[in-house]
Amino acid sequence: HLVMHQVILWNVIKVVQIHDIINLFGFTKTSDTLNYMVVMDYANKGNLRENLTKVIKCNWEQKLNMLYKIISGLYKIHEQDLIHCDLHDGNVLNHSNKKDEKEEENVDDNNLVFVSDLGLCQPVKSSLKKGEVYGVIPFMAPEVLRGKPYTPASDIYSFSMIMWEFTSGVPPFNDRIRDLQLSLSICRGERPKIVENIPNVIWN
C-alpha cells in the first residue's frame, strides 16, 4: 500500500516538473528482508540538519535563496492539493554540482536544495485520520499535537521552524527532550526565542 501511495503522489507531482522536490526514479525490493525502497537522486551534501553549521555562516542573501527553494517546493506540493505532513530539517536535502571537494566546504548559491521524504504526504481532502500524530515534535504545529488533522497551514508552521534554524544555527528546542512535556509546552504557546539582529523580512 505504501508503494502505491508513493507512486500516485509522485505521478501527480511530476506533472508540474518540480525542481525543488527530489527526483524519484522508481522502487526496488531488498532480497533479504523483502522491504521496498525508493530510488531517488543522490544528495551529496546530506540534509539541512547536517549542514546547519555551514548555513549559519552564509550571508542573508544566500539564506533567503535557500529558504525560497524550500518554500517553492512546499508551494508546489500544496498547489497539487497535497500536504507534506512531515517537513523538518532532516527532510530538506542539499546537493552541490561542484567537482572539487575542497570547494564544497561551504553551502552557497551553487547548492541545490530539495524537499524530500513524501512518505506521509496526503491529499488535503483525505489527510491522516484525526488523532494520528506523526512527525518530529519541534517542527509539529500545535493543532497537530492536539490530534487535529494536518493542513497546509501545519506545513507552513513546520517551515517557520526551519526559518528559525537559519537564524540560530541549531534545531528548535535543541536543549529540550522530545517528550510529552515539550508537546504540551508547544500547545500552550511556547516558541523558540527570536534571535537578535534578524532582518525584518524574516518575521514580517
Fold and architecture overview:
The radius of gyration is 17 Å and the shape is globular. It has a two-stranded antiparallel sheet with strand order 1-2. Helices cover 34% and strands 12% of the residues. With 204 residues, the protein is an alpha+beta fold. It has a single domain, classed as Transferase(Phosphotransferase) domain 1 (Transferase(Phosphotransferase), domain 1), CATH 1.10.510. The protein has helices at residues 2-14, 52-55, 60-79, 142-145, 152-168, 180-187, 200-203, and strands spanning 24-29, 36-40, 82-83, 92-96, 111-115, 122-123. It contains 7 helices and 6 strands.
Look at the helices and sheets and give the structural class.
Answer: alpha+beta
Strand content: 5-15%
The succession of helices and strands, N to C, reads: HEEHHEEEEHHHH
| Fourth-level CATH superfamily | Transferase(Phosphotransferase) domain 1
Compute the number of structural domains: 1
CATH topology: Transferase(Phosphotransferase), domain 1
**Rounded to an integer, what's the Rg over CA atoms?**
17 Å
Please give the share of residues in helix.
25-40%
Q: Tell me about the largest β-sheet.
A: 2 strands, antiparallel
CATH class membership: Mainly Alpha
What's the architecture, going by CATH?
Orthogonal Bundle
Shape: globular
Span of the ends, CA to CA: 42 Å
Mean of pLDDT: 82
> Counting H and I runs of at least 4 residues, what is the number of helices?
7
In total, the number of strands is 6
Low-confidence runs of at least 5 consecutive residues: none
User: Within the largest sheet, what's the order of strands?
Assistant: 1-2
